[in-house]
Write a structure and sequence with these properties.
about 0% strand; 12 helices; mainly alpha
Length: about 350
């Protein structure tokens, strides 16, 4: 006769139930602490982006054959990042703000000119009865469009950073990033202490899969954003478009958000170029479309790696789900999150389940 399970321990038939309840409890806790989870996620992305710099400094040879320790290299990189952030706040942000303000000031006039051109084209084509009501409505709204756009941007930024500021993210983010850069093995060992020893091998495998996915995404996406923003900004400046610095920065940042980012940047380029002439608007959007096609064809597939082969349908749904769950931070975290989920599924499916114990 089989012995009964010890008191206080779940039987084999009850174990799936307890594991399910534990998973639900963990998910509920993570959702309750989602602001901190988002902070940790951003620190991980930043650590992956800065890791090549830390590794490069660590390979430098010092006198007497010594090398820079990883902790010292991490400190140098974090201090450099803080100095860069201070420079951007002191010089870059005012310039971006001035260019954005000028863009908003010219926006009503650009829309009025565009509406007049549309009305003239509709009259030549005999479509005035259909186009004129739309143009009249656009003209009525043009004067209030700039304040609405500015208010929308401020509201978006408030939603993006309001929750994070409540947990002092601006101060804690570089600290967490430093720990992940300088003591990543110690952090991993500390996390493993919270788990049963029998799980360590599987957890390490899952961590390696996440590591590959995040490295592929962060480094590849960072390079794509830098190349797109720089090349597009230089091209628009060469074509004589105003606010080329702002437009280049917008194009680089828009690469993080598929489809919607391209559409937003394209509208900004067209409206800015049309403030000079219709020819400038056509040249600007043509140059942006060509650069986006060339980089998307020859650069992005090479630098993003095999860990981010997701169909555009999956990419779009991931971005929408991230925005719905976490707001603007969720839009940024959607694709790396989808890449991690994809890697975890591949990790679990590629490893056979352990054999069942003999009866």
């Amino acid at each position: 006769m089989a012995a009964a399970p010890p008191s206080g321990h779940p039987s084999e038939s009850q174990r799936p139930l307890w594991l399910g309840l534990a998973a639900v409890a963990i998910l509920a806790l993570l959702w309750a602490l989602r602001s901190i989870v988002v902070l940790v996620a951003f620190s991980m992305l930043l650590a992956y982006a800065l890791d090549p710099l830390v590794s490069g400094i660590g390979r430098l040879r010092l006198p007497r054959g010594r090398r820079v320790s990883r902790g010292a290299a991490s400190s140098l990189v974090i201090l450099g990042l803080l100095a860069l952030a201070g420079w951007l706040v002191s010089f870059g942000v005012p310039r971006l703000t001035a260019e954005f303000t000028g863009f908003l000031q010219r926006l009503p006039g650009n829309l009025q000119s565009l509406a007049g051109a549309a009305r003239a084209w509709a009259a030549a084509q005999g479509l005035s009865a259909y186009v004129d009501p739309v143009v009249d409505g656009l003209r009525a709204q043009a004067s209030s469009l700039a304040p609405q756009a500015g208010g929308l941007l401020l509201n978006w930024l408030g939603r993006a950073f309001g929750g994070l500021i409540q947990v002092f993210s601006l101060a804690v983010l570089p600290v967490l990033t430093f720990y992940l850069l300088a003591e990543r093995e110690a952090v991993r060992s500390s996390v493993l202490r919270f788990m049963p020893e029998a799980w360590h091998r599987r957890v390490v495998g899952v961590g390696d899969a996440m590591d590959r996915a995040l490295k592929s995404y962060v480094r590849g996406q960072g390079l794509v954003c830098l190349v797109m923003g720089t090349v597009t900004g230089l091209a628009l400046a060469a074509l004589g478009l105003p606010n080329a610095f702002l437009l280049g920065a917008l194009v680089g940042a828009a690469e993080v958000i598929p489809f919607l980012g391209f559409a937003t940047a394209a509208v900004a380029i067209v409206l800015t170029g049309y403030g000079v002439s219709l020819w400038h608007a056509m040249l600007g959007i043509g140059a942006y479309a060509l650069i986006n096609f060339l980089i998307g064809t020859f650069v992005t597939p090479r630098v993003m790696g095999r860990h981010l082969k997701m169909h555009p349908f999956v990419v779009t749904v991931s971005v929408l789900a991230g925005a719905e769950l976490l707001g603007p931070p969720g839009v940024v975290l959607a694709l790396p999150g989808a890449a991690v989920i994809q890697s975890l599924i591949e990790e679990f499916l590629s490893k056979p389940a352990p054999p069942a114990a003999p009866a």
